[in-house]
C-alpha cells in the first residue's frame, strides 16, 4: 500500500536517499525518493537485483551518481520508525559488526539522539 502523500517529507521526489535493507549487508543502498517523497524512518520496498526487498529510509544518499539510481518502489502506509527505534537499530548493529563495519554504521546513522554518532 502507498503511504499518505499529503504530509511534508524530508526528501522530495528524485532526491537520493540511503536505505538500510533487511539483507545481511553492512551498508546503505542509495535510491531515488519516489513521487510524493519520503522521510527518515519510512518503511519501503526497493529493487535489489531482480528482487524487491524491505528497508527503512535511513537518511540522505551516500554519494552515488543519481543518474544511476533506481527509485524506491513502494512506501508503506505503516507508521515510520521513531527516533528511539532507529537508535535501537544503531546500537544493535554496532554490537554485531566488526570494527570496520561498525564505523560505517556510525557514520551513516540518522541524526537522532545517539550521542556517539557524528553527522
Explained architecture:
By secondary structure, the protein is α+β, with helices and mostly antiparallel strands. It has a domain at 16-80: PriA, 3(prime) DNA-binding domain (GIY-YIG endonuclease, 3-Layer(aba) Sandwich). The protein is built from two helices and five strands; from the N terminus they run βββββαα. It has a five-stranded antiparallel beta sheet with strand order 2-1-4-3-5, with no helix packed on it. Helix 1 (83-96) runs antiparallel to helix 2 (99-108). The longest helix is centred in the last third of the chain and has 14 residues, at 83-96.
The oligomeric state of the chains shown is single chain
Q: Outline the biggest β-sheet.
A: 5 strands, antiparallel
CATH superfamily of the domain at 16-80, by name, is PriA, 3(prime) DNA-binding domain
- Flag low-confidence runs: 1-5, 111-119
| Alpha carbon gap, first and last residue | 32 Å
> What string gives the helices and strands in order?
EEEEEHH
Number of strands: 5
